Amino acid sequence: MSIDSPLIIALDYPSLDAALCLADRLDPARCRVKVGKELFTRSGPEVIEALHGRGFEVFLDLKFHDIPNTVAGAVQAAAEQGVWMVNVHAGGGRRMMEAARERLEHHGLKTHLIAVTVLTSMEAGDLAEVGIAEPPASQVERLARLAQESGMHGVVCSAQESSRLRELCGEAFLKVTPGIRPRSAEQGDQRRVMSPADAMAAGSTHLVIGRPVTRAEDPMAALETLQRELTLA
Ligand SMILES: O=c1ccn([C@@H]2O[C@H](COP(=O)(O)O)[C@@H](O)[C@H]2O)c(=O)[nH]1
C-alpha cells in the first residue's frame, strides 16, 4: 500500500502488546508507524511482521552507525523484512552510506534509505561538547549534502532546517522530521522543535510524532486534532 499522509507515529513502547494496542486503533491508510530501538530490542522482527500484517508501512529507525560492511548487512536485513524506510547515521561517512545504498541496489531492494544528520535533541552546546564548533544548522547542511552525494533518499533533520534543505537538496529529497510539538505539548528532551503545521510549511516531507500522541490521555483524540490542524482529517 502507498499512502499520502506525511504522518509517522513513533511506537516507542516497551512491549509488543503495548505497541500493537495503539496500532490497532490507527488507520494504516492515514499514517505510517515507526519502530525504534526500544521496541525492536524487546520484540525483534516479530513487531515488523505484526505491523505489516495490519497493513502498515514501517519505518525501522535503528540509526545504523558502524563500519561500511556491517551497516550494509544490517540495512539489507531490514530491507529484506520489507520495511518502507530504514536509516543510518550520516556521521558514519560517505563510504558507509555508499556501501548501504549499493547493497540495496545490488539486491534490487526498494526500501527508502535515509541518514540522520544532527539529532533533534541536540543544540549548539551539545555539539560543542563532542568537538563540533558549527551550529546545528550548518552541521545539518554539511551532513545533508554528504548524504545526498552518497545516494541517500533523504535525511532525518529538525523541521527548523527543512526550508534550507529544500533549497539546498531539492523538493524530492526526503526531510523526515522528529521533534514535532503541537503548541500545547511538552518539549521533553527535544531541543529543535516545531509545530506540525509550521513543519509542513517549512518543507518537511514527513513528520515523526511520538509522545504528543502516545502519551496523551486520549491518543486518538490527540491524533485527530493533529490531522485536523494539518487538514488531513
Ligand atoms: O533526530 C532524531 C531522530 C529520531 N528521533 C526519534 O523520533 C521519535 C520522536 O519522538 P517524540 O516522542 O515525538 O519526541 C523518537 O522515536 C526518537 O527516537 C528523534 O526524536 N530525533
From TrEMBL:
A Pfam family matched by this chain, by name? OMPdecase
Q: What is its EC number?
A: 4.1.1.23
InterPro entries for this protein:
Aldolase_TIM, OMPdecase, OMPdecase_AS, OMPdecase_bac, OMPdeCOase_dom, RibuloseP-bd_barrel
Name the positions where substrate binds: 12, 34, 61-70, 120, 181, 190, 210-211
- Tell me which PROSITE patterns the record gives: OMPDECASE (PS00156)
All copies of the Orotidine 5'-phosphate decarboxylase domain together span 6-226
Q: Give the pathway annotation.
A: Pyrimidine metabolism; UMP biosynthesis via de novo pathway; UMP from orotate: step 2/2
Role played: Catalyzes the decarboxylation of orotidine 5'-monophosphate (OMP) to uridine 5'-monophosphate (UMP).
Q: Name it.
A: Orotidine 5'-phosphate decarboxylase
